[in-house]
Amino acid sequence: MTQLFHNISELRTVSAAGTINNGALVSDKDGVIVWVGAFDELPDEVAASVDKKIDLGGRAVLPGWVDSHTHMIFDGNRAAEFEARMAGESYSAGGIATTMEATRSAGRERLEQLLQERIAGCHAGGTTTIETKTGYGLNTESEALAAEVASGGIDDVTFLGAHLVPPGAEAEDYLEEVVGPMLDAVEPYAGWIDVFCETGAFNEEQSRKVLEAGKKRGLHPRVHGNQLQQGPGVRLAVEIGAASVDHVNYLSDDDIHALANSDTVATVLPACDLSTKQDLAPARQLLDAGVTVAIASNLNPGTSYTSSMNYCVTTAVLQQDLSLDEAIEAATLGGAKALRRNPGEDGKDGQGRPGRGSLVVGASADLHVLNFTNAIELAYRPGMPATYRTYKDGVEVFSAA
How far apart are CA 393 and CA 365, in angstroms? Predict the structure, then answer.
């Protein structure tokens, strides 16, 4: 069914077309954009092809958020850890282990239920494209189940067996499991491989071993790096050709230069920074240096228990010195670039799929319809209900009405 979305006060395309006032957009039966522009410029032949008209009531429309860093496959609760941190305890990487037992014992049905609830929460906040990672099972059986469950509803699945060495295990023995039987088990379900390259987790040599093993099996690399201090994460990510390096709180001038001269996206995670009481990642400095920046939620039970990209974008504007346009682009097209899903000249990504993160012809009709006439109200009215409707591939997946 061909659909016309119209009565859009401002259509922020996140493309060369910029923001279109009194905008409109037409999608085909597959949910792919076939026309975008000002409503009064809609060609007669396109209008004649429309089967359904959707009046958006004079609201602002953005591309759906692209959340390129989440950890959705887990059970359990770490509210006590969070409360202690708010009372002054410092964050360290070791807290991941406390989620392991609950996740291992949850079972398939429970994990599937939790995942669907979390996806629904993403849609309710305007997110349409989601990446998620394994990494809370920390043994072959549980990591394989996590990857399989994730593949049932998530756009991009990342294998993160190298999240932490589980309690009682030796690092080298555990790594042999990660790059051996665990990698064998998750490979059918995952497209990416990640590693927590950080003090308290895995060092540079260990991290390289994990990423190289994944690359040999056709999994594309990503890196958790430079979250707690300056370290090798960024350098390793650029060297190995990772699509993104995520956290990036503590960067040297050399790190920033390396990122600016690479295709590796720097993903900032503002909700996590606030939860761990870290300095916010230097998004302004990165953008000024020419680095491609993404904003993601880092939904996880220990350090960022939120999927609200609205909150993350608002934080980027209010506390990280990004303009609204820059923050929106980082949370849409930037995230798509971190997942290699950004549209090319024909609107498709590098694998021939409709692109994400930008409202252009040939890309997916992933729409975030705001409750506001102007998108600046995301930051002007922080915390207010912001999402009116969400469409993924032209299909409504959330409505507040």
Answer: 5
What pLDDT is recorded for position 305? Answer: 95
Residues 307, 269: Cα–Cα separation, whole Å: 11
Rama region for 248: left / alpha / beta (φ>0; ψ in -120 to 50; rest): left
CA 341/CA 94 separation, integer angstroms: 33
* Partner residues linked to 294 by β-bridges: 267
* 2 in Cβ contact with 29 (< 8 Å): yes
Ranges of residues in the chain whose predicted pLDDT is under 50 = none
Which DSSP category does 398 fall into?
E
Reported as type and span, the H/E element at residue 58 is: strand 52-63
Helix axes 97-106, 140-151, angle to 10 degrees: 70
Q: For residue 81, what pLDDT is reported? A: 81
Give the three-class secondary structure for 392: strand
Q: How many CB atoms lie within 10 A of CB 292?
A: 22
| Angle 302-281-222 from CA coordinates, rounded to 5° | 70
Give the tens place of pLDDT for each residue, 320-358: 999 999 999 999 999 999 999 999 999 999 999 999 999
Look at the block and give the residue holding tokens 């809609």: 42
Please check whether residue 205 is in contact with residue 232, taking contact to mean a CB–CB distance below 8 angstroms.
no
| Residue whose C-alpha is closest to residue 15's, from 36, 29, 30 | 36
Classified as helix, coil or strand, 347 is coil
66: which strand partners? 129
Six token digits for residue 197: 């390259």
Nearest alpha-carbon partner for 12 in 332, 287, 301, 258: 332
**CA atoms within a 13 Å half-sphere pointing along the CA-CB vector of 355:** 29
- Look at residue 94 in the predicted model and tell me its pLDDT: 56
Position 99 scores a pLDDT of 86
Segments of 121-274 assigned E as strands: 127-133, 156-162, 192-197, 220-221, 223-225, 244-247, 265-268
**Rg for the chain, CA atoms, rounded:** 21
- Please say whether the beta carbons of 330 and 285 come within 8 A: no
Dist. CA 175–CA 344, nearest whole Å: 38
Q: How far apart are CA 338 and CA 248, in angstroms?
A: 14
pTM of the model as a whole: 0.96
User: At residue 168, what is the residue type?
Assistant: G
